[in-house]
Amino acid sequence: MKNAEGEDIVSQEGSNKIWNYHPDLPLPNSPVFHFPPRFRAVLNWFIRGWLSVSAITIWLTLAVGIYNWLQPSLAQWSMHAIFGMFLRNLFLILTVAGGLHVWLWAMRNQGEQLKFDSREMMRSNGTFTFRNQLLDNIFWSVVWGVPIWTLYEVIYFRAFDTGLSPAFQFSDNPIWFVVFFWVILLWKGFHFYWVHRFLHWPPFYLVAHAVHHRNLNTGPWSGLSMHPLETLLYFSGLLIHLIIPSHPVHFLFHVYTLALNPALSHSGFDALLVRDKRRLELGEFFHQLHHRYFECNYGTPEMPWDKWFSTFHDGTEGDTQRTRERKRKMSRE
């Protein structure tokens, strides 16, 4: 299928009976860590992520705006300020996750185009709180996700506003100030991979991570739908800002990649289409494979941890068989 400009908007649709849609396979790794270096691929990767309308540029713009116009001071404890931060975060998750759900799942504005899994959200299923997948996801996201997310913000801004956390300004080192945003993504991928591996340790999985993995077929509200123990660990990577000098805009950018980006990556769709044209890259088929096969793709596409530790699933049938064999071996141990 092509858009008005004659560009392809769908590839590989219907080519795999398991999926309604998937991108070209096998999935590639991040070109940044490829050897020998592929400079053109790296350049294109940075342009798509940092010099166009993307999740990265949206979270960066949001971080700048929130810090400059909507962040209260916590130099003195203020329940009014803390409650305002909670309401701000609640509004953000309702806008991003709620808006995507309405567009993609409720109004079905792009139908099945670029939808990974043809199945709908589950209802009348006892696996979920309220026997409803959507209500379950909203409950865990709002009742636990937003308060814990806000707690980490309160810890950081209290430390920053009282001078307890190390900080630097753009004028101190402009180049490092800019590069540090990319470093945050690398740290996020490193932290998430190892926390995620721990979450799959059977005792902890049964207590906490199983809540998130109820979602075999994910939607925008699935991203932050977690048990509170998992949510505490998931956001704990933010504590690095209490140790490494950074700026509040760096911190908020980091927050939004953790709190809001999962609504995109779990949306169940590869991209947002408007008038049959890709306007925003959304779901990561990389992570969709994790929800389908569990013991693979623990990390993020920014870092090749899964490739380095032999847990990478590239979407092909061969990797599916290898993942299943690894699960069988794990079950026997």
Task: Report the span from N to C terminus.
Answer: 47 Å
Count of the domains: 1
Provide mean pLDDT, rounded. Answer: 92
Bin the helical content: 40-55%
Which stretches of 5+ consecutive residues score pLDDT under 50?
1-15
Number of strands: 2
Query: Any idea what the shape is?
Result: globular
Oligomer: single chain
Q: SSE order, as H and E?
A: HHHHHHHHHEEHHH
Number of helices: 12
The chain-level structural class is: mainly alpha
Strand content: under 5%
Rg over CA atoms, rounded to whole Å, is: 20 Å
Adjacency order of strands in the biggest sheet: 1-2
Description:
With 333 residues, the chain is an all-alpha fold. It contains 12 helices and 2 strands. It has one domain. The termini are far apart. Helix 2 (55-69) packs across helix 8 (248-259) and helix 4 (133-161) runs antiparallel to helix 8. Strands 1-2 form a two-stranded antiparallel sheet. It has helices spanning 39-50, 55-69, 79-106, 133-161, 174-199, 202-207, 228-234, 248-259, 261-265, 285-293, 305-308, 317-332; strands at 271-274, 277-281.
